[in-house]
Every structure is written in structure tokens, then in C-alpha cells.
Amino acid sequence: MPSTTIAGRQINVNDEGFLVDPDDWTEELGAEFARLIGVEMTEDHWKLVNYLRQDYRAQGETPTLRRVSTQTGMPVKQLFTLFPGKPAKKMAYVAGVPKPKGCV
Amino acid sequence: MTTIDHDVQTETPFVPSFDTPSEEGRKLAIICSKGTLDMAYPGLILGNAALGEGIETHLFFTFWGFDMINKKTQSSLKATLLGNTAMHMPQGLGGIPGMTHLATSQLKKAIAELDIPEVPDFLDQIVASGGHLWACRLSADMNHLTEADLRDDVEGIISASDFIEMTAGAQLLFI
């Protein structure tokens, strides 16, 4: 299992670079993950990240983009604006949870 | 100036590569030619997935696939046993009145349980994700339909050669 040093902490990541243990996550780490992938965190970003962490804890899996949109009430278009390109994967990375498995 | 400690601190962190150069400029075109509920979904699911991966995606609706973007029919696509042996029911049953309705509502229920949107909502999501919808000129002419009959987010009714031209270099899926 690879490990890497981010925000001054040594953390275990998987082959793609995602945090292995969501319990290792801190807000500071999340902010640094975001900076490293070129995302500038705003209140809306944090709202999504916190929702992802809370839903992951409750459901045992990372919500898909559709679920994020329907559950938070944030339009899909805005998700693409906040986390451009690959929103589902990028927000999962920042939130320190695995990338979503669902298809839709 | 540079201490050893500093070097350790600035060691390049291992970060997922979300924007790999090989995917730069990747483009996908999906031809949706079917008007049954079960065959509407593969194109929608794959198109939606491609958009979520940051891939430029175009959906081209032709022939029976027009029912997916026709305002009158997009909410009432149906699934049928007839001609579909993968339903694993005697084909004779498919002709009994009410069987198509039953198959359709069963499929809709299964789809809803997975939190997958109905066709019009799914197309809304695809457009919100940056997807492009196009209609086939010949199909429109054959069915005497104009842009007014189609979803407002259909970007245009285009000819087969327009489609070929605009999908230069794209990966193609025919459904």
C-alpha cells in the first residue's frame, strides 16, 4: 500500500492516490487535497464534502453524483462548476472517501 | 538555503491524476435508435457516466430513438415481452392485453428502486452535466416533426453528414 506525505502527515493511500482510511481525514487534510487537485474550497465545497462524509458513514458507500444532487438540493450543473471535469471522483477525494461505485 | 528538512517537506505528494493527458480531448458520440424503455437506458447511463468523467458527449437520436426526445412520447416509453426472449417468458404471453403495461411498470419500478431517473429527468441531468442532444433530420421529416415537438434542450435537427462531420475523432456507440 503506498503512503504519501500531505499537509505534513504521512497517510496511506490506494493505487490511485485516494485516502485508504476515511478516519484519517481531517479538515486540514481535505483542504490540502483540494489545493493539490486545483480546487479552491468555498462554503458550497465544504457543504458537499461534509455531506459525502456523513452519507458515507451512514450508507457505507460513497454517494453518486445523482444522489449528491438530490440529497443536498444542489443542481448537477453546480456540482460540475464546483468540481470541474470529474466531480464525483474529485469530491470523494477531497472528502477522503472511496470513489463512488454506482453507475448513475 | 535548502535544508534537508525542507526537501522532505516538499517531496511531491502522490495525488490522483484526474486530468490525464491521454483523456484530453476524448469525445464520445452515442446514437440512440431505439424507442423501447429498456433500450433507452444504455445510452443514457453510458452518456451520463462519460460526462462524469469529463468527456465531451453527444447523443444523436434517430428513428425510434426519437421517442426519447419527443415531448409527447418521452414520458411514456414502454417495455414489451414481444420479441425479447431475454424476458424468459413464453412469447405468446406478450400478446395478451395488459402485458406490455405490466412489463413496463415492473421495469419502471426496478429502475426507480435503484434511484435511476425516468427518461425525461435523465436527459435533464445529462444536459445539466454538459451533454449535447441532437435530432436526426430524416427521422424528423419522416414523422413530420419540427423542433417545436422536441425537448427544448435539443440543440438542433441535423443531417447524417452533419453528424459525421461533428463527431470527427469521436468514439461511437450505436444503440
From TrEMBL, chain A:
Subcellular location(s) of the protein: Cytoplasm
InterPro entries, A to Z:
DsrC-like_C, DsrC-like_dom_sf, DsrC-like_N, DsrC/TusE
Q: What is its main location?
A: cytoplasm
Pfam families membership: DsrC (PF04358)
User: What are the annotated GO cellular component locations?
Assistant: cytoplasm
Give the stretches traversing the membrane. Answer: none
Name the keywords, alphabetized.
Cytoplasm
- Drop me one GO molecular function for this one: sulfur carrier activity
Which processes are annotated in GO (biological process)? tRNA wobble position uridine thiolation
Q: Where is the active site?
A: C103 (cysteine persulfide intermediate)
- What does the sequence similarity comment in the record state about its family? Belongs to the DsrC/TusE family.
PANTHER family to which the protein is assigned, alphabetical: SULFURTRANSFERASE TUSE
Q: What is this protein called?
A: tRNA 2-thiouridine synthesizing protein E
UniProtKB/TrEMBL annotation, chain B:
Protein name in the entry? Peroxiredoxin family protein
Q: Which Pfam families match?
A: DrsE_2
Start and end residues of each stretch annotated as Disordered: 1-20
Q: Which residues cross the membrane?
A: none
This protein's species is Humibacillus xanthopallidus
Q: Which InterPro entries match?
A: DsrE2-like (IPR032836), DsrEFH-like (IPR027396)
